Protein: AraC family transcriptional regulator
Amino acid sequence: MYKVVIADDEAVFRKYLRGVVDWEAEGFEYCGEAKNGMEAWELVQREKPHLALIDINMPYMNGMDLAQKLKEFNPDMVVILVTGHSEFEYARKAIKIGIEDYILKPFDEEELLSALHQVKNNLQKTIIGQHQEQEERQLWRESFLNLLISGEYRDDDEYILHQMTKFDFAEYPAVFQVISVEIDDLLHEWEQLNDIRFKKYIISNLLMDLVKPEGRQFIFNGPENRIVSLLQFAADEDHEQFSLKGYNQLFMLIRDRFGFSISIGIGNAGQGISSIRKSYMESVIALKNRISTEETNIVHYRDTATRTSNVGFYPSEMNENLLISLRLHDEEEIRKQLAAIEHYIRDRQLSGDYIHMILAGLVSLCLTYIYEIGKTVEEIFTPEFSPFQEITNQPTLKEAFEWITNLYTTAMKYSKSVKHSKSAKILAAACEYIQNHYQDSQLKVEEVSRSLYIQSRYLRRIFKQELGIGVSDYITDVRMQKAKELLLAGHNLKLSEISEMVGYGDPSHFSKSFKKYTGLPPSEYEVLHKK
Structure:
């Protein structure tokens, strides 16, 4: 609805204008009237109308002077002069200085409505044009800011320097710092684009209210649905005194009042426009390393820099043992193996990228097992289930392993519920026998098969078909797992004692077998894996 004011020194005419049309029905809000030019000027400043109907002949300030003043105050305001025949020439002059229209007294309802409809059309065109111009400027600004974080320019690029001035950057050079914000669990909501836009709108507005640097802040939509906060400080001391508490407040407000979670990555500050790209990339690296930190959703690059080079050495035997436990439907052992992998990651403070590689490998291993038993992911879970996206979207290591544990146990329980073949039952019985007799140094394939009243050749075939390994390999695997537990249990056992406890009569033979299995002698393994 458009706001309108009236100025005329004749009370009768003001009353006539008030009632001659239904202003609200025509899309106008009647905001007030004035009996002279000075009152009209005060009224306009207070109400800021879209339309002013003013008489030319008024005391204190005539209509011509008032019209000129109104146009200087707001060039987009529509001014219509109301005049008698004798002032017709004045009205013609007024048109030349930007007055949109005039109405000759006396006039009827139809003439006024015709003028109002024309005003409405012009106002709509003006507002649409302003919105389009604003949107174009916003898109242009956003494209330019994304160019700055992309690094696709030279420091002395005249276009860049010109655009920075155009978009209100302070004089070059300056200190810049980039902070990136990501909405957690965004992949779960990829269909709800309106919700995502709304959340980004909330974040951007809160950033403007909460973050107040001594300088400037530019907030824009960056790559991969990130909201980017680019800070510009006039000097080093301004940056050094700047507090990040606004970002802490942002995180808490989003979580407590709006019911969703965000992660914030903070890059280091640097000199010159070339530092913008560097700081942005640091903020992204900080976000990627979010999974390796449990304390906070706000991660500073400087706190993760030491982790980025930590790739460690992930033992393949961990995945092999996990797959065996999955094939044996041993839920307790599955949980134990996954807990050991999580402990391995935490103990070595691995980088975010390396953690995600390990997690993706664990997902792939479980999917391999699902296809191995002749099923598909859709049969066990849902058609919409996207495991690699799901694991990537887990914000913390704890949540990632909770999700993976659920993935494995769900697959295991589904497989277990399927009617087992005779060979699967023999396999389970054989594994149970080995678990109970691995300490016997004389334990061989033949003894296991005799206990089950089957031929050893048949038992070997079952192990190969069901587990992908031989019976002897399985016996060795059980013994090595028990040996590792004993080495790390802190009982200060002698090598000969451990050797005997896991079924090796000769400690030397045990040491060789252990090194072949783990890649390390028992003593080195113990030192390396103990905290």
Remarks:
- The two ends are 72 Å apart (CA to CA).
- The CA atoms of residues 24 and 30 lie 8 Å apart.
- The chain has a mean pLDDT of 83.
- The first helix runs from residue 11 to 20.
